[in-house]
Amino acid sequence: MHALPEDHTGVRMARLRRERHLTQRAVAELTGIPYSTYTKTEQGVISATPHVVAAFARGLRIEVATVVGQPYTDELRTDELDILIRPIREALDIYDLGADSDVGPRSLDELKSDADALLVAVRAGEIKKAASNVAGLIEEGTTAAHALNSTEGWLTLASFYRTAYDVAAKLGFPDLAQLSLARVDWAAERGSDAVLGGMYQYLRALTYLREGKFEIGQRLVKKGLSTLQQADQSHERDVVTGQLHLGGAVMAGRAHDPGKALSHLEEAERIAGTTGEAVKVHYLTFGPTNVKVHRVSVLAELDQYGEAVEATGGLTIPKDWPKSRTSHHYAEVARAQMWTGKLEASFQSLLKARKTAPQQAKYHPTVRETYSGLEAAHRRLPESFLSYGSWLTSR
């Protein structure tokens, strides 16, 4: 018995195609996806790659989230995460109303400490904890920022908005992620911080990466690099610059532009040689390790799965790395291993992704798509494989 009989992207692609009265041949021509690849994806014979999903979404003029099935409503309800989304929306909506006389904000130092704690929680994979606390802190931070009207006050509020973005992106609410980023930009402008402005463009580019709009994403990477040139030379600026190049590498890889992808990787590697491991600078996890991890990602995005698996050789994740980033890496390794026929190794990587950051892994499209790809060959996998699928869809 299949654990996810109706929960793979191919099924949704078929349904969306039929709703528009299109044949498989017509969709292949409309999207530029090879006909054989498209039919096998619909049938679940092969899993949908991010490149195929993006091409399908662009061709049919729909959101990537619709194609991959986000947000996963039933699971969010079971985990009591759905009820946390509306308060975040409401908190984001009061940004320009000034100080609230009914809110007595604590000291700026206390708020900054809470802002850092939220960022740490997200990177530890504790999404529910961050989602539970961020709305109230945004409200408190909004009043403090308006009352103080200081650089630190606005930048602290921008950090709260960033956590709202993280939560929305990880749980599959692209509209809320976009709104959160707009608020980051609004607060960053008032804080007059060029480095934060560059990071805003990086996060904005990631949003377009998820939406499959690679050309816009690449333009945002370029704009972010330009914005950073306005900042004074610093370790912080170098870290954000390097991270923008890593984002540009993945963007170009997903767009199947190997030259540009490798160029971004080379520049990021050069910068990382200067910065060293800078895990906690804006919590971007930049450094030589992240460059190696992104090389695996880029090779996979270029459909060079064998090379991606080879690139994991000798790659050791530092103990102080955020669990969320480590889990994401294991998910990408699992995808590459699946495509090279290493089914048992792929499943073991999925298990590592879940063990490292279970809340993130459960809502990660790559985890679900890789599981669906493995599901077709589950007779060759251990009995625990089906229990993994039950966990993904637990209600």
Features:
395 residues, 22 helices, 434 Repressor (Amino-terminal Domain), 0% strand
Q: Topology of this protein?
A:
Blueprint (H helix, E strand, L loop, with lengths): L8 H11 L4 H8 L3 H9 L6 H11 L3 H5 L4 H6 L6 H8 L15 H16 L3 H22 L2 H21 L2 H18 L2 H17 L3 H15 L6 H20 L3 H18 L12 H14 L3 H7 L11 H17 L3 H14 L1 H5 L2 H11 L8 H9 L3
What's this entry about, in short?
This protein is mainly α and 395 residues long. It is 71% helix and 0% strand.
Model description:
The structure is a single chain. This protein is mainly α and 395 residues long. Among the domains are: 1-69, Orthogonal Bundle (434 Repressor (Amino-terminal Domain)); 322-395, no CATH class. The chain has 22 helices and no strands. The radius of gyration is 21 Å and the shape is globular. The two termini are 18 Å apart. Residues 1-5 have low confidence and may be disordered.
Instruction: State which percent range the strand residues make up.
Output: under 5%
Radius of gyration: 21 Å
Q: What is the helix fraction of residues, given as a range?
A: over 70%
* Count of strand segments: 0
Biggest β-sheet, characterized?
A: none
Structural class: mainly alpha
- What is the residue-averaged pLDDT? 93
Order of helices and strands: HHHHHHHHHHHHHHHHHHHHHH
Distance between the termini: 18 Å
What is the global morphology?
globular
